[in-house]
Design goal:
There is one protein chain. Helix 2 runs antiparallel to helix 13 and helix 8 runs parallel beside helix 9. The chain folds into 5 domains: 93 residues, no CATH class; 162 residues, 3-Layer(aba) Sandwich (Rossmann fold); 101 residues, Sandwich (Immunoglobulin-like); 226 residues, Class I glutamine amidotransferase (GATase) domain (Rossmann fold); 98 residues, Immunoglobulin-like (Sandwich). The protein starts with a strand and ends with a helix. The strands form 8 sheets. Strands 17-16-15-18-19-26-25-24-21-22-27 form an 11-stranded mixed beta sheet, with helices on both faces. A 5-stranded mixed beta sheet has the order 8-14-13-10-11, with no helix packed on it. A 5-stranded mixed beta sheet has the order 29-36-35-31-32, with no helix packed on it. By secondary structure, it is an alpha+beta fold.
């Protein structure tokens, strides 16, 4: 506790002398004459009042410093995923895994003596709360995904204001969601000690390791399906691999398992006969001595379309951007791309330019027009756009921005103003309007994912937006949003266009390994743009849709929607009812929640696997505003059972890279010793300083008034003026 002043402390001494001198001079002689004792009382009152008044002029500040000691915190992360049910090497109840975890946790009290131990469960993410004590019997072991990297990162974020000194990770090491935890452990601020739950020995098992096919198929066209099977210790057995739709087997193949541990590839195929979502199930024969039968089947969902979308890709010149754009479009089986790359004026490498552009569903301009672009081709593209063919323009280093003005006025959502030839590196920053636009909806829904993309080369040309343009993404340089347009779209009656004003999209195809989780992001963005450009104008008053067509097993099923009146004004007070029809025909009613501006949402929670149909009806009072319907699929819960047994190698590497130790229950000494040594003297002293300006404190002002009032009272009582 201390005082400080805004002026020199010597002025405090001068204030004391001045107040004392004034009091003595004023009450040395009084009229009428008063006894000495009364003059002393009046002098003291006047001295105190003057001194505190002068003190306030010196800007006094009261400072209080508190020192708090924070105990070291040890976070114990306990895996609550379904894969731990295979802890003993067989498909068991959760009791075996709970007993194993209980044996591990008994080593914590002696090693973490004096520390604040926090127990946190995790699956695909952390539990909401932290427990000072933990009972393994409370583990449900039913999480449908395991994300170790996210659990570690979330723990660091949650306990950042605490004195976190160590993390104990209790898991089987089998992650199936998120990044490789080794990348997180390398940069983790505290050691991660690990304890393995589960059997490290390989047991007899046969499982569906993977199923590869296209996400989109077409009516009447054969759809190949590649099935990868992993067999361990099953040599010489005969099995049947079957493919079923709606519970009916449509094809199968018998085979004999090779000796030892084997990878078997089986090629199946099916020919869809109608449009819509189709759910196929691959199953293999269940053998009596397997670890588990839960991984003997795998479901997949395919959207069947009547035909592909035809895309005309016109490029100004060969280059890495054009190659990257072609690869991004080619990754989508629903697109049929016809590329035409400019060779010279009026000539293309692929031959003659198409005679009719109306045959295409969308025109993609990859840097086109260039410096040698043909005016005739430009005019034909402009005419096709005016007739309703959507256009997607992407800037590249080969673009001739002045020539772009020939078609930009009536075709694109932007027009070049003052043209500049230089470029700057700029990051892709979603704009507020983009947060709710379907083009920016990505799987996972993580808005921070866009910041992982490498920067693009942004032209310093001044771009003018057309009156009906909408900016979905802007330019960000070194974390500063410059509010310059980067991704712009425009929607007019029966006509849509889009423009990406950043060159260097080839960088988005060359992400480093630690960003491999986001490698699908550019392809999703391009697919969303093409889908939005080619979508039919939707003037329905009620528009309800699940956030995705296929939900993972155990994943919450979510719906979004909008409701409009006859004038297409948002209706914020409607009652929107959704009825789900389960695979066995049972109906379940739900009521959507209004979130403002005519938007509605619903989270049904996790649903059993299968294909669901749904219908929605919106009411306002007795009035029916409209209805909608559709379908979605919930996948199976096999992800946690694909790899029986523990991955002790991963758990050891996580510990070593972060500075921790793997717990060996047969020799717990090194674990206990290292953790105890690490926590010695790990308490952290936190100093908190509180300052208060006494000039603003009302108690001091009231005290001065009380002193002056008391002096006035005594003066009047003794007949003084």
């Amino acid at each position: 506790m201390s005082f400080s002043f805004g002026m020199s402390p010597w002025l405090l001494a001068a204030s004391l002398l001045a107040a004392g001198a004034a009091a003595v001079w004023l009450y040395r002689h009084t009229m009428p004459a008063l006894p000495r004792s009364k003059r002393i009382v009046l002098g003291v009152l006047r001295f105190c009042a003057l001194f505190f008044i002068l003190l306030l002029l010196l800007e006094p500040v009261f400072r209080l410093v508190r020192h708090d000691e924070k105990e070291p915190v040890v976070a114990v992360l306990i895996d609550d995923s379904a894969s731990l049910r295979l802890a003993s090497g067989t498909d068991t109840s959760r009791a075996v895994a709970q007993a194993h975890i209980r044996d591990i946790l008994q080593h914590i009290p002696p090693a973490a003596r004096g520390a604040d131990v926090r127990y946190i469960r995790f699956g695909s993410d952390l539990d909401a709360g932290e427990l000072p004590r933990f009972e393994p019997d409370s583990l449900a072991l039913n999480a449908f995904r395991t994300n170790i990297a996210q659990a570690l990162a979330s723990t660091e974020e949650r306990l950042r204001d605490d004195n976190l000194r160590a993390v104990l990770l209790v898991s089987d090491g089998r992650y199936n969601t998120g990044r490789n935890p080794l990348y997180v452990s390398e940069r983790y601020p505290v050691p991660v000690f690990t304890a393995v739950v589960g059997d490290t020995l390989r047991r007899q098992d046969i499982r569906v390791q993977r199923v590869l096919t296209n996400e989109v198929a077409y009516v009447g066209a054969e759809l190949p399906i590649e099935v990868g099977i992993r067999a361990e210790g099953m040599g010489g057995r005969r099995i049947t691999v079957s493919l079923a739709v709606d519970g009916e087997t449509i094809t199968s193949q018998a085979l004999e398992i090779p000796p030892g541990n084997a990878e078997i590839v089986v090629d199946l195929s099916v020919t869809p006969e109608s449009e819509g979502l189709r759910r196929y199930t691959v199953a293999i024969t269940e053998l009596p001595d397997e670890v588990t039968h839960r991984n003997n089947r795998e479901s997949l969902t395919v959207r069947v379309l009547s035909s592909k979308r035809r895309i005309l890709l016109v490029a100004a010149a060969p280059g890495p951007d054009v190659a990257a754009i072609r690869r991004l479009l080619a990754r989508n089986a629903a697109f049929e791309v016809s590329p035409f790359v400019q060779k010279s004026a009026g000539a293309f490498y692929e031959g003659g330019f198409p005679s009719s552009l109306a045959d295409f569903d969308v025109i993609v301009l990859a840097g086109y027009p260039g410096r040698v672009s043909d005016g005739t081709v430009l005019r034909r593209i402009g005419e096709a756009a005016q007739e309703g063919v959507p256009v997607f323009f992407l800037l590249t280093s080969a673009t001739s921005i002045p020539r772009l003005g020939i078609i930009s006025e009536d075709v694109l959502p932007v027009e070049p103003g003052r043209v500049r030839e230089d470029f700057m590196e700029a990051a892709f920053q979603p704009a507020p309007a983009g947060n709710h636009h379907p083009i920016m909806h990505i799987s996972g829904g993580d808005p921070e994912a866009w910041s992982t993309l490498p920067p693009l080369e942004y032209s310093r040309t001044q771009w003018a937006l057309t009156p009906d343009a909408q900016v979905l993404a802007t330019v960000s340089v070194r974390g500063i949003d410059l509010s310059e347009p980067l991704l712009v779209v425009r929607r007019r009656t029966q006509h849509r266009t889009a423009a990406l004003l950043g060159a260097g999209t080839w960088r988005w195809q060359n992400l480093p390994e630690d960003l491999s989780d986001f490698e699908q992001l550019p392809a999703e963005l391009f697919a969303n743009i093409i889908q939005w450009l080619t979508a039919l104008e939707d003037d329905r008053p009620v528009r309800i849709y699940p956030v995705r067509d296929v939900f993972g097993g155990g994943e919450s099923v979510q719906f979004s929607g909008q409701v409009y009146d006859e004038s297409l004004n948002p209706v914020p007070d409607a009652s929107v009812e959704i009825r789900l029809i389960s695979p066995d025909g049972v109906e379940f009613p739900y009521l959507m929640q209004a979130i403002g501006s005519g938007r509605y949402t619903l989270n049904t929670g996790a649903l059993p696997e299968g294909a669901y149909a749904w219908s929605a009806t919106a009411h306002r009072g007795e009035e029916i505003l409209g209805s909608d319907r559709g379908e979605f699929v919930v996948g199976s819960l096999t992800l946690e059972y694909r790899e029986p047994g523990a991955d002790v190698t991963l758990m050891r590497q996580v510990a070593q890279r972060s500075g921790g130790v793997l717990l060996d229950q047969s020799r717990p000494g090194p674990f206990t010793e290292v953790l105890s040594t690490h926590l010695e003297g790990a308490s952290d002293t936190i100093s908190q300083t509180t300052e208060e300006d006494l000039r603003k404190h009302p108690a001091l002002l009231l005290f001065i008034i009380a002193l002056l009032a008391a002096e006035w009272f005594f003066r009047k009582r003794n007949g003084m003026v």
